[in-house]
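User: For my dataset I need records formatted as: sequence, then structure tokens, nothing else. Please produce one.
Assistant:
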Amino acid sequence: MGLHQVDSRGGAIALPDDGGPLSYTVAAAQGPVRLRYIAPPDHLRGYVGSLYLFSVSADHYTDVTRADCPQLRIMLSGAGDYHFQDGAVVPTPQLCLLGPTSGATRFALKGPARVLGVSLLPAGWVSLHDQDASQLADRLRDLTEDRGGAFAALRDRLHAMDETDANAMADLVWTLLGRIVQPLRKANWDLLAAVDAWLVGEGSPRIEALSEATGLSQRQLARLTNRYYGAPPKLLARKYRALRCSARIALDGESWQQLCEEAGFYDQSHFIREIKHFIGLTPHQLQAEPSAVAQLTLLRRSLGGDVAVLNRLS
């Protein structure tokens, strides 16, 4: 049973709403939770995944979000904290560059809250923050002073707009990012394409396969994937295997016990631990009672060919 359908058990299920294409709402216990996705224009698709508008109406809202790629996030209203998987609790600034996360991250919002976010692909990360991505893994930094205050000016313009202006809001973001992104050398694009294909193309990605595809040693690959993706190949393989399996459980209704055998996990206990670590929910919870944010982020896969495969997974 897909998440677009009404749950016969009576649970809160993500359903398309009147917010436009690829806009969904979950009637959660704490109040409605809405997420709308917007695909980037052609000239930015190598740098960013989707733009999204997230809103909650409750005065207080907590949930967990899966391990993910880096994010540019702008708090349009409300405030909150991130609770990272290593135990660190960090208040989120109004302009936030969130590094890649290596495990599920809990967040707490004081609302009502509205957040505009953009998921960053490796080339976008390099353009916005030309530092080793692993140095900001499971952490964030304030962007208020960056780019001569350009992000602060963007926030002020977006703050005066609402969700009915979603496409206009997106256009402002694309205009700024279009001035920031920088082309990579062909060798870098080739490496990123090889790593992306490796992560999404194998059920249980083997580092040896990536080494053969790129002609690089495992030590060289670790240095490069830390820089661009925020983690060494082994951790990336675990992360994207769990993300792929979670989507098949929650969106496609596949048996997690069968997936456990197909995806190369040692046993069911190993499968449960990995899904819990990277998704924040057990396989049973994904299947029977996924949280609002788990459902809405999984629906990123619905963006289809307009968005990089890697971004649809994470």
